[in-house]
Amino acid sequence: MTDNVKYGVSTWLWESPFNTQSIALFPKIKGMGYDLVEIPVEDPELINGQLVRQALEDNGLEAVVCGAFGPTKDLTHEDSAVHQNCFNYIEKCFQLCNLWEVDFLAGPMYAAVGKARMLPLEDRKKEWDLAVTNIGKVCAMAKDHGLSIALEPLNRFESDMINTAEDVMRFIRDVNCSNAKVLLDGFHMTIEESNLSQAIKIVGDRLLHVQVSENHRGIPGTGLTPWVDFAEGLKAIGYKGAIVIESFTPEIKELAGAVCIWKNLAKSQDEFASQGIEFLKRTFK
């Protein structure tokens, strides 16, 4: 790998939703050796952006911003009022990106997470076309802020629209905006891809961001993920972004239920984070 890669961890590993008080996690995250913190913005109203910016500076951390897209923020909903709610939310996320000097917003913003159904082909195409149109609008909004977006494929149990690298690249071709890019998450990839290295190469220079955990959502290095293939793929495309651990704690009942985390995946969340970064640095360095 290249020395330009940075290592990060999502605050979702410890708590949800992120709020101004969550900056108490920053010294610990920095102390574990992380370069950046991934901030999932569930409710922008809970966040004092200026205080978070100061805490990032005080702890020598960079940020990545991820959006959270549920039923009330669904760009494929039949009601255009739901689209507008999503656009308003994304606009606030873009403002936080600018404030925290982050150059993209990441996440599966094309549709609500958990929307996984067996649809007739004509209905599926209708939703696809609606998502393409609305993500085109999001790209125009992002451009006004000098930003890109990083679209995340999800596994088939969480989305029926975009599951693989090929899916997301086809979607991006349809959107046809230069600032529509990609986030790949190793957890979803181990379910949906037949070859991790090849999937990364399919995305190529559109890859802005990488999230990782094990195939069972646990500590990287403790499962079945083919990490050598993962590293080979990133090396082949000259990836220079961040590699961020994203997992969850069963203590956050609502979020844990949504992602089916029924038990602890480590002795403690701190152990998850500290063991995880050690493995990533060995594997990708």
Automatic annotation (TrEMBL):
Domain Xylose isomerase-like TIM barrel, first and last residues per copy: 28-281
InterPro entries attached to this UniProt entry: IolE/XylAMocC-like, Xyl_isomerase-like_sf, Xyl_isomerase-like_TIM-brl
Top-level taxon of the source organism: Bacteria
Protein name: D-tagatose 3-epimerase
Taxonomic source organism: Arenibacter palladensis
